[in-house]
Amino acid sequence: MKLAYYPGCVSRSTGKEMDLSTRTVCAALGIELEELPDWSCCGATHVPNEFVSIGLAARNIIQADLPIMTACSICYSNLRNAVQRLEVPEVRSKVNAVLTKRYEGAQIRHVLDVILEVLQKNDERLVVPLKDLKVAPYYGCLLTRPVGGLDSPEFPTIMEKFIKTLKAESVNFGLKTFCCGGPIFMPQEKAAADIVYRILKDARKADAEVVVTVCPLCHLMLDARQKTLEARHDEKIGIPVLYVTQLVGIALGLGPEELGLNMNSVSPMAMIERIYERMTEK
């Protein structure tokens, strides 16, 4: 399988482990990635002008003749939204007028969907069984939006299917599609912190050993904010938060440095040790 790869801006900053684990896991699974040669910001969620946002996304999309894959749910949502809006003749005409190459259509994929497709065809690549590992699937806001993508916005199940494919256990996590509070972190820090605390407490209540996510903003909020929350509430949370690519990388037997696990704020090493201990017990 060969795909065009859109890393997204955070792959150069707070989401380096997302990018590293994506490249490593795809290579291990025989998924060939061809990085867009001159990619730029997709428009993310902070560009208020619709045509500017669509134009930014289209500028990236026209660089590839292959289906485009990204690991960031914000980029995935924004690129997909652009593809949908560009079906409107007036929008396409206006955007094409400022592009160096005409937009003629595109297919946007998320790494979660791609990996799941590969593993469902051949799960013998999974050499480290994650059986008995309790995983909380955290979707966040954007993976399933706009409508018509890889799953239902209201009742998604693709992450549960992914977790099951890894032989792990998906816990009943009620806040799996709850907003992480990231968009309001700067102007309303306390409100955002309260949201994160509620999500993590819900995961703990479900007996999750790890939270798995698909969004670098969600990962930042749930992972990096834990120490602050522990100090504020005078309690230990200590639940690792991994990207889907990091979790599948563990199941593929890849090393911590290959997956960027040393970059996580809450170390997952104790969890990984339990995984290997369970292997020896069987």
Q: Secondary-structure map with pairings?
A:
Blueprint: E1 2-5, H1 16-28, E2 32-35, H2 50-61, E3 68-70, H3 73-85, H4 89-96, E4 108-110, H5 111-121, E5 134-138, H6 158-165, E6 169-170, H7 189-205, E7 210-213, H8 216-224, H9 226-233, E8 241-243, H10 244-251, H11 256-259, H12 269-281
Parallel strand pairs: 1-2, 1-3, 3-4, 5-6, 5-7, 7-8
Helix pairs in contact: 1-10, 2-3, 2-4, 5-6
Explain what you see.
It is a single chain. This protein is an alpha/beta fold and 282 residues long. The chain folds into 2 domains: 2-111, Glutathione S-transferase Yfyf (Class Pi), Chain A, domain 2, CATH 1.20.1050.140; 123-281, 3-Layer(aba) Sandwich (Rossmann fold). Helix content is 44%, strand content 10%. It contains 12 helices and 8 strands. It has helices at residues 16-28, 50-61, 73-85, 89-96, 111-121, 158-165, 189-205, 216-224, 226-233, 244-251, 256-259, 269-281, and strands at 2-5, 32-35, 68-70, 108-110, 134-138, 169-170, 210-213, 241-243. A 4-stranded parallel β-sheet has the order 2-1-3-4, sandwiched between helices. Helix 2 (50-61) packs across helix 4. The model has no long low-confidence stretch (mean pLDDT 95).
